[in-house]
Every structure is written in structure tokens, then in C-alpha cells.
Amino acid sequence: MDIATLVMTAVVLRCGNVREAARQLGRAPSTLSAAVKRFERSIAAPLLNRAGAASFLTLEARRMLNDIEAASDIARAVIAPRLAADAALAFCASRDISLTALQRVALVAETGSVRRAARIIRLGQPQLARQIARVEDELGRVLFDRSRVGVTPTTACQLLIASLGELEKTMQRLSRRARERFRSTNATIRLGAVMPLGHESNVARLLAFLVAAWQRDRPTQPLFVTNGTAEDLLTGLKDKRCDVALIDSDTIPADVSSRALVRSKLVVVGAREVLGDQPDVMRVLRQQPLALPSRRTGLGQAAHRLLAQLLPQAEIDALAITEIDSIPIIANLMLDFGFVSVLPESALVSFDARLVALPVDPGLELILSLVWVQTEGARRGARSILAALRNYAPATPAAAMMVNSD
């Protein structure tokens, strides 16, 4: 870690904005963005959520902000003790001085000899001498009075060393948190799953079964479960935000492995008064507004494939279709506003009894699959999840376990 990276990161977090921090420090925004990314790598945690030109502090950044600002304040006192606050920050933000280099300055002062300090850290004496000289150049201060018998720390060096210990303690706290996060992340299996349709849906029941079995059989290995669309989850597998994903898409990339778990037939769903006793499916689709999950979801993709099987494209283009990635909103549209939807038959157990299903022919099935990338860690995670699901069985006859999870 270097002083410039620490100070620039602290100013960015305090401003909450890279451009404002760059203006205050008189540096290019790209320089500050690069500094924050270096700091994020060093502590193994994201500090900013970036959305186009805007950025927002993560929860982890808010938790660490006091320590980061404290470290920056100490660094400012170490590097620029005689400058006013703003000038000191700008000066520190341009100093390429590592914490390791400062620690070596302290060691040379303690031993009174560049040669002895170099032997202790197993570094060549000329290399250490050049590093000390570079620190002096960056600071614009002489740190040692040199003589034939050794070196003596100047007053400036003594002031630097007096504050260095507190800076080291603060940075050690940040590093310890990073190590703890790394150990936790390294042991955690990260499972991404599609959004459940309701608390009684197959996805919700399967995940609850999995978490309970996991806690019983692997109490010391954390399982982290997050939700997203099928598209988001497949992207999350590629960029390593999750190890394994539970998705409802049958369009699975060839470079990942998968195991089909549960299937459920797709049906047209609507309020009882809309569908009637024996309605005609084609008439319902042509006459009623449709509320479908978006095509970013596996369910939305399957619903559109079903429409393509039932109707010519010209008629599909004429349908009143609204895409909504919220099943509760879709349910309310069906109950209160005459909309119909295409959903898994098994989902009906999660809905109001006033909603009924209309079978379609030819029928399509929604398949819930476990997917993982081709790494040893992901394969281990998938095997563990499949083992935990060994005895899972869907609660509704409308869904069926496709394969033995072994």
C-alpha cells in the first residue's frame, strides 16, 4: 500500500464522487479511479458501486470509512506535518511512498546503519540506500545525517517515526479484515438462484430444503444465497460473483455444466371470471392483456416460446404484452385488472385461489437446473449442493424431480 493510494481513496469515499475528489486534489479522475481499484484489491472488498458516471459507497465502504479516514489523517501527519489540511492532502496524493519504504526508514533509524538494516531484511545495501534516498526526495526532507560510522535520524525522521506506529496499527486492522473476508469468501459456497414465485413455489421450497440440509450437514461451511434473473446469474458465474446457479432457462451455454432438477408444465393463468369454465386458449390470448416475466428470465423466455408455438408472429406482434419482473405485480394484474399470464402450473399453489390455470397444447415445460463453471471449486460446490438435495421432492404433482440428484 502506498500513501497516495490511501489518501486518494479516503478523499473519494468522503466525497462519494471521483470527480469531486479529483477536483479537490488537483488530480485526473482516472488517477483516482485507479487508486480506489488498487485499494479495493488490497483489502479484497468493493468500496464503490459504479453506475455509469455515478458511484455510490458500498456497505463495506461505510463500515471501513472511519479506519480509512483515520489512516489517511495519520499519513498526512507523517508525510506533510507542516502543511494545512487541503494542501497536505494534495501533497500526499502525489507522493509515491509505500508503507514498506517508511517501515524501512524506521528500521534504519533503529539500527543506526543502512548496512545492518539491509542484512536484517535481506536486501542489498545499495538498493536500500537508494530507497531511503527516494523517500527523502519524495518528502523534500533529509531523514538521516550520514557519517563514516553510520546514520543518525534527523528531527524530521523522528517525527515521521513517532506517527508511523499508529499508521501501521490502523492499516493492520484493515488488512486483518481483508484476511478474514478472504478466508470467509474462500470457504463460502455462493449460490445464485432465480427469484421464487412465492413462498410455496418450488424454487422457494427447494432453497429452504437446501439451506436446512446444508446447515445440518455442513455447519462450519457458509452457504450464501442470492437472487437474480437467469441472465444475471449466468453473467455472475462468468465473472465469479457466484460459484453455482439455480436457473430456469433451457438455453444454457456450452462452456458450463448443468444438472436438470425439477420440471413443471407451463399453463395460461388468469382470474376465474376471465378464463371461465372451458375457455378457448387462443381467444383468451388474443383478447386479454398479457403480463409476462421479461425475457431476461428463463420463465419469460419460455413464455414467449409458448406464444410462438400457439400463434403466428403477426398475431403475437398485435398482442397487448407487458413485461414485468415481479410475480406479485403480475398476480395483482390478473386478479384486479383482467390480465392473463403464462406461468408454471406448480406456481398456482403460491397464488390466490381465485386464479386458475388453463392447460395448453402443445405444452412446454419449465426446467429448473443447477449450473456451474468448469473450475474445481465450482464442481465441488455443485457436488455438495446436489448431495444436500438428494432427498428433496416437489410438493405439487404439477412438478416433478427429473433426475436423482446423485
In words, what does this structure look like?
The chain is of the alpha+beta class and 406 residues long. It has a domain at 188-406: D-Maltodextrin-Binding Protein, domain 2 (3-Layer(aba) Sandwich), CATH 3.40.190.290. Helices cover 52% and strands 18% of the residues. The protein has 17 helices and 14 strands. Strands 5, 6, 7, 8, 11, 12, 13 and 14 form an 8-stranded mixed sheet that branches. A two-stranded antiparallel sheet has the order 1-2. Helix 6 packs across helix 8.
Short description:
The protein has 406 residues and is of the alpha+beta class.
Key terms:
406 residues, D-Maltodextrin-Binding Protein, domain 2
Overall outline:
elongated
Tell me the CATH topology of the domain at 188-406: D-Maltodextrin-Binding Protein, domain 2
| Mean pLDDT across every amino acid position | 85
Q: Give the helix tally.
A: 17
Biggest sheet descriptor: 8 strands, mixed
- Could you name the ranges where pLDDT drops below 50 across 5 or more consecutive residues? 182-186
**Helix/sheet category:** alpha+beta
Distance between the termini: 47 Å
Provide the β-strand percentage band.
Answer: 15-25%
Radius of gyration: 30 Å
CATH architecture label of the domain at 188-406: 3-Layer(aba) Sandwich
Summarize the amount of helix as a percent range. 40-55%
> In total, how many beta strands?
14
Q: Which class of the domain at 188-406 in CATH terms?
A: Alpha Beta
SSE order and pairing:
Elements lengths: L2 H13 L2 H8 L3 H15 L4 E4 L2 E4 L1 H21 L5 H8 L6 H13 L2 H8 L3 H15 L4 E4 L2 E4 L1 H33 L1 E6 L7 H16 L5 E6 L1 H9 L5 E4 L8 E16 H4 L5 H7 L2 E3 L5 H13 L2 H6 L2 E3 L3 H11 L2 E5 L10 E4 L6 E9 L2 H13 L10 E3 L5
Parallel strand pairs: 5-6, 5-7, 9-10
Antiparallel strand pairs: 1-2, 3-4, 7-13, 8-11, 8-12, 8-13, 8-14
